[in-house]
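Hello,

I think I submitted the magnesium ion job twice by accident. Can you confirm which output corresponds to this input? Input:
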Amino acid sequence: MNPTLETRILPAGEAAVAAAARTLAAGGLVAFPTETVYGLGADAANPTAIAHLYAAKGRPAFNPLIAHVSDLAAARKIARFDAAAEKLAHAFWPGPLTLVLPKADGCVVADLATAGLDTVAVRVPAHAVAREILRAFGGPVVAPSANLSGHVSPTTAAHVDSDLAGRIDLIVDGGPVEVGVESTIVGCFDSPMLLRPGGVPREEIERALGRALAQPPQEIESDSAQPLAPGMLASHYAPRTRVRLQADSVERGEALLAFGLHRLHGADNAVAMLNLSERSDLDEAAANLFGYLRSLDAKGARTIAVMPIPNEGLGEAINDRLRRAAVGRA
Ligand code: TXA
Ligand code: MG
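Support: Only one job matched these inputs. Its output is below.
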């Protein structure tokens, strides 16, 4: 990795889209907005570009990436769709759903990007800027979240800049993202399996499928194994400050990540306080989650205390990310 790259930041628009497509074609790294979080894109067919991407993120090389494509026709060139996959693609694309599917014959996605698996993760994002970049580039773009490995995912161009300035070529600034948590990942195996809760709630997927989603065999707790979905790495989403979940009071020296209007004992003494959603709206809370974690992480608090969040709708993804944020930090 070259730590002294000059990272350009361009506001979303025609010039930025053209620059993004050119940079990708030249093997460069481009951060761009999707509806979930900002992604760090590289040409999915270019192993050298992908190696640079892993280096820029400081990500373990076995962590496979999502290939982003502009539409279902482009997805069919890299992956094989069974009946369940067809249903899900029609119901939720473009949108915050990733499907893990068998690679198609002639799939151009580099083995490095799929960590040598015979499956590939595919998604058609809904964000207008992401789609324009994919169309202009004309091939699949692998894009993990555009943060340093282990940091929380970026929901603004400024977050990307603070993690990756000097390590990537271009940031396309499309403003804050809408959804705020990453895509839901469904493995289309013998029975469709929820690999990562995310921007499409489980209930909606089960309704579209007409059946319950299977659970992965085990939760992955460390970097040591070859994970099914390494987004499951236990400390993947950790801020530097310790995180305390299910808080029912605030202790001295703590910052508070609140939800709803209920006022906790000791809240007045919090070092800092941000409310994910005063009106207890889980969609609003998801959109605020990573930005608020970053802000509270910067307050020098002893701990970030987090109020309970209901586990329905996007709450399942929010609680999943919060559990990861709470693991593995002293
Ligand atoms: O919303 C999102 O999905 C964002 C935006 C940028 O699209 N991307 C994102 O990528 O979250 P990343 O790299 O942070 O997470 C990708 C997840 C990882 O947990 C990875 O293990 C899983 O997808 N994955 C990729 N390919 C896989 C495969 N073949 N089998 C199982 N899991 C896979
Ligand atoms: Mg990530």
